Amino acid sequence: MDESTLRSRQKKSSETSDQDKEAMLIKKRKQTSENYEFGDVQKIPPNIRDIMETNFSRIFAWELYFGYIFWTIFFGIGPMVMFFPMVKLAIDGYEILILCLASPIILSSSIVRNIAESTVGKLITRIIIIISLLSFQFENPVLRLFILSIGAGAAMIDLCTSLSARYHSYRSIIVWTLTISLFFFLSLRVCFKSIMPAWSGVLANVVHVIIGFLVIVDQFMRDNTMWQLLPSISLTATQHTSSLGFNPLRSASHESVLQPHWLLLSIGFGSLLFNLHWVFGDLSVVSRWASNGFPDQAPEPIPYGLLVWIGLFGGVLTVNRLSIVTNRWWASIGFIGYGLLYFNRGNVAFAGGVALSLFIGSVIPLIFDKVARGLSSRIVVIGAFVYILHVLYAVWTSAYNFVPFGGTLLRETSHVLVFFNFLGIYFGVYTAKPNLGTYIRGYISSISLPNRRIWSLFGIAFIIACAGTFSRFLNLPSKSLRLSEDPTHITAAIWTVHFGYDNDARPSLDRAAAVLADTNADVIGLLETDSAKPFFGNNDLTSYLGEKLHMFTDFGPSTKDHTWGCIILSKYPIVRSVHYLLPSPEGELAPAILATVQTASKLVDVLIVHMGNDRDDLDRKLQAEKLREIMANSTNPLIFLGYVTSQPFSRDYRVLTSAAKDIDATDHDRWCEYILYKNLIRAGYARITHAGLTDTEIQMAKFKFPTNADFDDHPVLVTDPSAVTDQSVLFNSKFGSFYRGHGRFNTHRFHMDTPKYFLPNGPKTK
């Protein structure tokens, strides 16, 4: 017998052995559940069974809403914690509050656990959760952070006590409502242009709070349903044991056929939570991971984000065939998809993301099911620590220039995070056995789970996602309409938007869109825009602003490229673009986009860049040289919109201006933002205050297209708008008039000796 035949037989024997073990496990599980009243056939008192069957829809609605609020707070605490180090570019101390996610550690005390699991404890916990949503209403960001941290801690305790509820049929409801509420959360984010609905505005926030209190009133005060389903409060420090006779706070019994390995499951649970936040916190994130230059760009979130939703739901559908999900070969789909998403660009990467969504969707209810079977708060606690470690690693890989040891140990190592994140999920699903689906396929008297009502809720969530996608699709600009325009002038603007948060940590995108619309700019370069990260809220600034302003967009480089991101917005179609990672041997990676926009008869190159930190001298030197090369190779009219971090007439400034002209070489009071140009005629220049939306002003420039190759620039500088004969060149008077010096206004106004206009010196100028 040859060696290959022997290996084949051994493999077949091993597979048969595994199947026999699984069958024996299921058989033992049925016997155990009958003997110990555990699982989907738990024998519960007739009155409780009748209550749950009669009030099934109400109970499901309660838990569905609080599941949605859980995802809202869980995904919302990260941006609040990260706001302070983002502003100071250093560890601030408030980061410690992320440990609020490990709050179930207090349940190790039997007295605290008894209180938390009681009806009164559940009522108090949920009141705290809803009140914490009101943190959005406070002006002080520190106060908002502390209130939301308390709410996040309460949400984790509520999650833990719900998954370990006394009646196992109630746990089945929790497993499914957590899963379905995630889909509603994603669908509603589509309708709110990727912003989390509860944090999208004052009115939306109040509506969430009102609904929350109405749910609490119906749940705890309308009748005694919850008072019978949950135990009464007890202050006795009793030894907590399950109906199987072991203490769930001690080491899991390896003899139990029902409990998975608690430590491996904890790792899997935390890894899954991070994956949902990192890759699937919004349907747009996969597109931003797959970002690539035109014309080979990745599918846009609108409408292709729906494919991610469908992939996740397709994974959930596999609960009807658990033998598929629990087969180790199924994991290869997720592993290959993860690899394609991370190591590729464009359509291939997006396809990998959809494949990964199929795998992740299949393990969401399974891991929740196993956590519910684990009967231990420590699973949630250790899972929270695993999640926090993932988040810290993700922060360090991008913010390595501003954190301890970041530049030497973790710089640009997200591929390591991808591997260990998937390995953690694998541990939770395939090594923390058994995979029995106890609560996925539960029974509440005559009601089986999942049932038609559950699948109908998924259908409603999908309809919401489709409606949001369709309404947003209508806001996309018309390419044919824009190509028919043939302007004589073009207006450009540059701004650093601070990831869509103002100086008080409030969402600023609506206000940013309003002021950008008032500028009437044709092309806009935005910096610090990659908020498709878990610690920035997974917001899609690109789609949001593009749809609000009806402009074409290009985002780059990819979210996985460890930069802070650039966006180009253009009234005219983008026909070609290249995404650059500029040389950065010492400091943070510097992103750049060179995009070519097309009018009816003209092509214009727009170069947007965020150069490295001012302390990294070698980086800035190499980056300036690379940018000079890019500009020198451009044959079209070119506009440079750059965050340069150098003074006028410094070394880097001289390198850049050797390839393009400065819009106003007389403006010596600049540090970060510069506008340069090539093969264009300058017409106007303005600086506009940020009004607290960010820490950086808006700069604008107007240019005239030359009518022939032999043209002169406009050398004459004036500040009196009446001296300008072509009134279309004037900037919007909504920003006021000429203002000398630094303007410290609460509104957007001209300042720094602008606006300025440039006039021809003689009749030869075209």
TrEMBL record:
PGAP2IP first transmembrane domain span:
68-202
Task: Give TM segment ranges.
Answer: 65-87, 93-112, 119-136, 142-161, 173-192, 198-217, 262-281, 301-319, 326-343, 349-368, 375-396, 416-433, 454-474
- Quick one: signal sequence residues? none
One GO CC term, this protein: endoplasmic reticulum
Region labeled Disordered — which residues? 1-24
Task: Give the InterPro entries listed for this entry.
Answer: Endo/exonu/phosph_ase_sf (IPR036691), Exo_endo_phos_PGAP2IP_C (IPR057315), GPI-anchor_lipid_remodeler (IPR051916), PGAP2IP_TM_1nd (IPR053912), PGAP2IP_TM_2nd (IPR053911)
Gene Ontology biological-process entries = GPI anchor biosynthetic process
Organism domain of life: Eukaryota
One Pfam family from the record: Exo_endo_phos_PGAP2IP
Which UniProt keywords are given for this protein, alphabetically ordered?
Membrane, Transmembrane, Transmembrane helix
Q: Which residues form the PGAP2IP C-terminal nuclease-like domain?
A: 489-710
* Domain (PGAP2IP second transmembrane) ranges: 260-434
Instruction: Please give the name of this protein.
Output: PGAP2-interacting protein
Species this protein is from: Adineta ricciae (Rotifer)
